[in-house]
């Protein structure tokens, strides 16, 4: 039976700044938000963070939430053993480490209470039940966890899991790599062993010093792939490398496990993975990489070295596994053998000429680890002084576009050509250079992007030109959408309701004037602020209605001019006409279109007061 939880009041706010962007912000104590999945059939968005699980509709209206922490916890105690003395005095935050859809349910595993998993009702997340207290149900890791839910050819569900050791007792830690199934139940949820040997573990004596961080897990061509960063111990010298592993999906053991390095080059080698996404439709793996930060003793990329994006096709990857791992191994290549993190590493034997070895059929070794360069592609995009923390291809587009978030809170749209990628949109989505874009982003079928920054979830239309916030950004973007400037926003021509659409140039913009009035005699020194004024007096004119204002000083954002003499009082718009091809990356051309900036010519009355 499910437990119905008492509803806890959560103060939050939704901010709809424009039709193309929406933000929902939760209290800071629940950030950072880190996990997100979408179910378009039920029009649901599920988001996990620190001590919280949230359920939204696709318009970011909150439907429900579950507060899951802080909790009393200890790595030395059973999940719910409140009699354990270590648990009484230690309160910890519970970060959601795994968030996956399963039929009409959600599988949620936190980092607290040994990482025990819960099964939630997808329609009402106040209905949940924790799994049986067993280490194969402790899948949430304080370092990293990944899960892939798929189906066997016989129809039953299979769960492929990767988790990093996070310091808990061996009694509460399952395996780094495992395949599980889930017997039917709605009361006692309990993962089962897919087969007796459907797991692979780091040796107990090596686990404490072996560092492992999972980035992604995906299925392709009846194989399961894990992407992770791991430590490499070469004669006592520790280094870090990103690896990709391949596993035959339906084999009953992990003997088919193969592992090799994966990296990106510019030609400089970038080998610390940051984010990864596998696109099923294109059968491509998108990854961002950085360079290791050598001044810290952990798996971390150095932001000062920048980062890159690489795209790997699955067919080339499988061929590389065959040539780089399997073939070289059984030719007796030195240092090739079973994974070095196993208890008993074995070198690859030389196969006889008659033996025909395949990944899923070989039984000579229980897993193979390759060294060397492994699989490396040339970067399609490179950026300096930022780390690209998330990556996602934009589908339903005639162009090859990649979306990438950064550690400084920006979202970029990158147009990839045959030679290189070019960023044509840079949108500030976090508003804070210390708040990164989370590595998980999702798109719906209408090309709306959902992303996480700190304690905020943002929905952005990827088919809107309004991501370009200034006229200059708009007309120089070369956006495949065909964007141009429409009075006060960037738009496609069909959506521009005014006859003011610019694609090759920008007009001047008048934002304000001071003073707002002056005498009919003229000679009022008028200061005008705005943008796109150019830099040459001869290239600009200022008018107040039909009257001229004679320019004294000019720069791109500020002009001073002297009003001319008029015969009658009048209140008229201040406009500018500029033609300048040299001061900006784009041409400034036209008349300012803001008709609400008004200057008033007034009659100066003299009042004389007589006192008796």
UniProtKB/TrEMBL annotation:
EC class name: transferase
EC annotation from Swiss-Prot or TrEMBL: 2.7.10.1
Cellular component GO terms, alphabetical: plasma membrane; semaphorin receptor complex
Localization of this protein: Membrane
Main location: membrane
GO molecular function, one term: transmembrane receptor protein tyrosine kinase activity
Domain Sema: start-end pairs: 13-462
Top-rank taxon, per record: Eukaryota
Keyword entries, A-Z: Disulfide bond, Glycoprotein, Membrane, Repeat, Signal, Transferase, Transmembrane, Transmembrane helix
A Gene Ontology BP annotation from the UniProt entry: regulation of cell migration
Xref: InterPro entries: Ig-like_fold, Ig_E-set, IPT_dom, Plexin, Plexin_repeat, PSI, Semap_dom, Semap_dom_sf
Topology within the bilayer: Single-pass membrane protein
Similarity annotation: Belongs to the plexin family.
PANTHER family, A to Z: PLEXIN, PLEXIN A, ISOFORM A
Name of the protein this chain belongs to: MET
Organism: Mytilus coruscus
């Amino acid at each position: 039976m499910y437990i119905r939880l008492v509803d806890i009041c959560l103060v939050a706010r939704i901010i709809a700044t424009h039709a193309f962007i929406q933000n929902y912000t939760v209290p800071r104590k629940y950030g950072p938000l880190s996990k997100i999945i979408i179910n378009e059939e039920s029009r649901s968005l599920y988001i996990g963070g620190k001590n919280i699980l949230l359920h939204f509709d696709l318009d970011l209206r909150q439907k429900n939430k579950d507060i899951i922490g802080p909790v009393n916890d200890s790595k030395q105690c059973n999940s719910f053993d409140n009699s354990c003395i270590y648990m009484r005095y230690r309160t910890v935050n519970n970060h959601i480490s795994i968030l996956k859809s399963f039929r009409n349910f959600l599988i949620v595993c936190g980092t607290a209470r040994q990482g025990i998993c819960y099964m939630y009702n997808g329609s009402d997340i106040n209905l949940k039940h924790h799994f049986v207290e067993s280490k194969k149900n402790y899948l949430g890791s304080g370092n990293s966890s990944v899960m892939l839910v798929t189906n066997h050819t016989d129809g039953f569900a299979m769960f492929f899991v990767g988790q990093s050791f996070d310091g808990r007792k061996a009694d509460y830690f399952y395996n780094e790599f495992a395949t599980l199934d889930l017997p039917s139940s709605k009361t006692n949820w309990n993962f089962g062993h897919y087969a007796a040997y459907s797991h692979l573990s780091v040796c107990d004596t090596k686990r404490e010093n072996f560092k492992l961080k999972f980035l992604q897990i995906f299925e392709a061509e009846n194989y399961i792939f894990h992407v992770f960063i791991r430590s490499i111990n070469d004669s006592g010298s520790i280094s870090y490398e990103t690896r990709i592993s391949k596993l035959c999906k339906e084999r009953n053991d992990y003997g088919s496990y193969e592992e090799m390095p994966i990296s990106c080059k510019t030609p400089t080698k970038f080998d610390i993975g940051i984010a990864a996404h596998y696109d099923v439709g294109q059968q491509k793996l998108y990854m961002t990489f950085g360079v290791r930060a050598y001044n810290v003793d952990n798996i971390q990329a150095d932001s000062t070295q920048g980062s890159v994006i690489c795209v790997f096709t699955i067919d080339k990857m499988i061929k590389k596994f065959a040539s780089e791992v399997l073939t070289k191994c059984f030719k007796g290549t030195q240092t090739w053998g079973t994974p070095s993190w196993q208890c008993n590493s074995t070198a690859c034997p030389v196969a006889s000429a008659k033996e025909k070895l395949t990944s899923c059929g070989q039984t000579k070794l229980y897993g193979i680890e390759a060294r060397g360069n492994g699989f490396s592609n040339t970067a399609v995009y490179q950026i300096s002084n930022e780390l690209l923390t998330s990556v996602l291809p934009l589908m339903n587009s005639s162009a090859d576009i990649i979306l990438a978030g950064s550690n400084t809170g920006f979202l970029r749209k990158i147009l990839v050509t045959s030679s290189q990628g070019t960023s044509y949109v840079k949108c500030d989505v976090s508003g804070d250079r210390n708040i990164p874009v989370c590595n998980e982003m999702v798109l719906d079928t209408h090309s709306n992007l959902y992303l996480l920054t700190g304690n905020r979830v943002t929905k952005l239309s990827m088919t809107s030109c309004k991501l370009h916030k200034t006229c200059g950004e708009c007309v120089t973007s070369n956006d495949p959408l065909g964007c141009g400037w429409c009075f006060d926003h960037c738009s496609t021509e069909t959506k521009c309701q005014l006859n003011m659409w610019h694609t090759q140039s920008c007009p001047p913009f008048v934002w304000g004037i001071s003073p707002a009035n002056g005498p009919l005699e003229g000679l009022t020194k008028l200061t005008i602020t705005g943008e796109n004024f150019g830099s040459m007096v001869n290239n600009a004119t200022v008018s107040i209605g039909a009257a001229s204002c004679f320019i004294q000083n000019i720069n791109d954002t500020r002009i001073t001019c002297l009003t001319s003499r008029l015969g009658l009082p009048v209140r008229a718009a201040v406009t500018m006409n500029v033609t300048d091809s040299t001061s900006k990356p784009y041409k400034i051309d036209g008349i300012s279109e803001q008709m609400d900036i008004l200057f008033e010519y007034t009659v100066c009355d003299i009042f004389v007061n007589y006192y008796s």
